[in-house]
Amino acid sequence: MQLIKNNSMTWRYFKQGLFFTCVRASALVITLALGGIIFYILYNGLSVINWDFITKPPTDAMTKGGIMPAILGTIYLTLGAIAIGLPLGIASAIYLTEYAKEGRVVRFIKVGINCLAGVPSVVFGLFGLGFFVIFLKFGSSILAGSLTLGFLILPTIIGASEEALKSVPQTFREASLSLGVSKWQTIFRIVLPNALPGILTGSILGIGRAAGETAPIMFTAAAFFTAKLPSSMFDEVMALPYHIYVLATAGTNIEATRPIQYGTVLVLVAVVLGIDLIAIVIRGYMRKNKRW
Amino acid sequence: MIRQTKEIIIKYIFFLFSLASIVVLGLIVLSLFREGIPLFSKVSVKDFLFGMEWYPTYDPPSFGIFPLIVGSLIVTLLATLIAVPLGVLAAIYISEIAPQHIKIILKSVIELLAGLPSVVLGFFGMVIVAPWMQETFDLPTGLNIVNASIILALMAIPTISSISEDALYAVPREFKEASYALGATKFETISRVILPAAMSGISTAVMLGMARAIGETMVVLMVAGGAAAIPESLFDSVRPMPASIAAEMGETPFRSLHYQALFAIGIVLFCLTLAFNLIADYVSHKFKQVGSGTL
């Protein structure tokens, strides 16, 4: 009985069908995993969310009230990270795409960027603690946390900016240079404005990451509870990711704060995925309406 | 003349900015060593790396991080075993098989998965997966290696999938066409032509995914259980290195031996991920597909 020969078409297509099934199944598993996570968060979190939850500080030893200080803290830290990461990242990318010639120096810088991108977030936390908090004596503060997060997202912003700068057609530069415009003016007036939307959408993904990171701010900025809202860059803040972690693992009453935990998770996911979604939508729009 | 000088100055200013990443990398190394190295005047490197007991708060304390290293490696390996097939197959689906509209949806799914904050995934593993696992398999705890690995795999999948996808797209079109012209099926073309041609990119993807998993903190902190002992089964708790740092740093006195030991773990973790990244970088440059001539 040799119904299926080793190399018959039936057998070959059977193998193909089997493979395609595996491939589709893995795509389905990933989609279901994401769907499941989002569903559970929405299902448990939506009932907690109301205006007071978002605008009031916590009360009754964290078991009641809202999470306003944590939302505010996350906004401060993220804005700080942008203020540090974005200019530095764009400037790095301008050098790498517009000025640098392929060679050892550029290779060295690029390996450095890749290595920085691979540094674990908890090591960034240790770095922030050792350098900003202790060596520069910033203490646990918005400033130290923002600097740590800013450097954490630097590689993402450099990568996004490089892509965007490279996608500006060479003819734009040549046209400008041939009119006698200097290189710097060409970059500043022609290349950068054309690349800016791409730079921003690419960077938004990094910014979302900064808003959601926990380990880098654990030792550099985040506090479990602050009685007052921060009044300067040298104050500690509450932050959404750290709030979730502390309530879920070390709070005095883990079960009683469960609804607040779900609510906080939902707010954090909404913030981070909201930021990412904006980037995805703008990018799709830009691809459709490209000027070149 | 003045204009040229200005141009040169501007060029060097940008050059200085581009060194920022290198400077930060240097500062990371410096601060880790400044705070961590003093430990080794009290504890030998061998006792630190291969010591079997991590009792930092006992009297006398014991700083052997071998169980933590084992915890990190086992969780990372298992996560890789889960994430590599899923991630690579999803990449194949996106780049070779899926119709346009599914492709767009799946790419967004993977991007959103990449965007989920690690603390949210950790929370999900702790509050949803752990109780379910404990009940279903009748375990003493749901916070264990398997649970942590599954959640870590979810974090590594986007990295593996998106980099593999780029590698698959980079395979020249003629390769596929030549294969079809010889009468190969789509599966044969993918498995014998496209995958081998994209192998260096896929290996890079796997290395970077592993680097991501070994350095991930919040997931292992919340889900791995936290027992600093060599595990005997896959359903035991472990305490990977990042979890130890994150969990203990808040409670340790400034510049105590324990504090220095945590920074020393940071050095080990930094070196491990650096090695993974350098290998990935080497592989992607050494075996880079140039045109169609190198296969």
What features would you describe in this structure?
Chain A has 292 residues and is mostly helical. Chain A is built from eleven helices and two strands; from the N terminus they run ααββααααααααα. The radius of gyration of chain B is 23 Å and the shape is globular. Chain B is mostly helical. The longest helix of chain B is centred in the N-terminal third of the chain and has 32 residues. In chain B, 73% of the residues lie in helices and 1% in strands. The mean pLDDT of chain B is 90. In chain B, α7 packs across α9. The chains are: A mainly alpha (292), B mainly alpha (295). Chains A and B meet through α1, α3, α4, α5 and α6 of A and α1, α2, α4, α5 and α6 of B.
User: How many angstroms separate the termini of chain B?
Assistant: 51 Å
| Reported CATH architecture of one domain in chain A | Orthogonal Bundle
CATH superfamily of one domain in chain A: MetI-like
Number of helices of chain A: 11
What is the H-and-E element order of chain A?
Answer: HHEEHHHHHHHHH
Oligomer: heterodimer
**What does the main sheet of chain B amount to?**
2 strands, antiparallel
- The average pLDDT of chain B is 90
Strand order of the largest sheet of chain A: 1-2
Largest interface: A-B, 85 and 90 residues
| N-to-C series of helices and strands of chain B | HHHEEHHHHHHHHH
